[in-house]
Amino acid sequence: FGFSFVAVVPQFETRCSYVKATLEEFLAWSCGQPSCLSGPFSCYEYSKYWAYADYKYIATMFEEKPEIFQDIRWSDFGFPGRSGKESTLWIGSEGANTPCHLDSYGCNLVLQVQGRKRWHLFPPGDTSFLYPTRIPYEESSIFSKVNIANPDLKRFPEFRNTTAYVVTLSPGQVLLVPRHWWHYVESIDPITVSINSWIELDADHEARVEEAITRMLVCAIKSAENPSDGDLWLNPTEVEATSHEINLQYLNKAVSAYFKCQKASESEQA
């Protein structure tokens, strides 16, 4: 849950509230039904909050009904062999938004199923104008310190130099988010449903080395901090800090994969 008012600071997941509920309870809440007065949404007045469920793997949710996620054929867009099996489901209410960020890996295909979402896209060349940060830490996500919906231009004056490409995605439409493009996404209808799939690219091998180093540094610094400060460091989707040995193994694998890819590329060119 996030607040419906527009703050100057981005609403990172570390600042949001979390409840466990069924889809039926969520729909009842979004329609303002009286049954919500005693359910998991009882503390959250619809006019004051938005709700968002993200990173739900559709294959896990519909394990008993595989035909549902198999119906999603990304092969129609030039990616043979990909279906809903690797895809995630996103459900939100009006006003729900994701802070502006870029994904370290791959490109992103997004299918809008219900409701509309407004996408604010910024090219990789605008990175320095968006004041990137790794806190809160989430593997493969680099966040912007700027709240795109309400930018603080005194604190972030370079944001004026950005070039935003604003796209409203309607049901049935598919958006391709190119590699390393920044995006801020907001739901503009009462209920929004979308499905996405991240497509791996050869350049991801280098990005995995960078992410492995970042993870090692974050875990090292975090281990020296007060444990109670953890919520400010890690996004709820991120696991707790791992051991140095495990992080070294992760880095070694990433470096090995990178060199293997480089050798394969050189052989192809030869």
From TrEMBL:
Bilayer-crossing residues are none
What Pfam families does this protein's entry cite? Cupin_8
Where is this gene product found? Answer: Cytoplasm
Q: Which GO terms describe its cellular component?
A: cytoplasm
Q: What keyword terms does UniProt attach to this protein?
A: Cytoplasm
InterPro entries of this UniProt entry? Answer: Cupin_8, HSPB1-associated_protein_1, JmjC_dom
Q: Where is this chain primarily localised?
A: cytoplasm
Q: Where would I find the JmjC domain in this sequence?
A: 54-214
**Is Amino-acid biosynthesis set as a keyword in this record?**
no
The family database entries (Gene3D superfamilies) matched by this protein are listed as: Cupin
Top-level lineage group: Eukaryota
**What functional role does this protein have?**
May play a role in cellular stress response.
Full protein name:
HSPB1-associated protein 1
Which organism's genome codes for this protein? Phalacrocorax carbo (Great cormorant)
The organism's lineage is: Eukaryota, Metazoa, Chordata, Craniata, Vertebrata
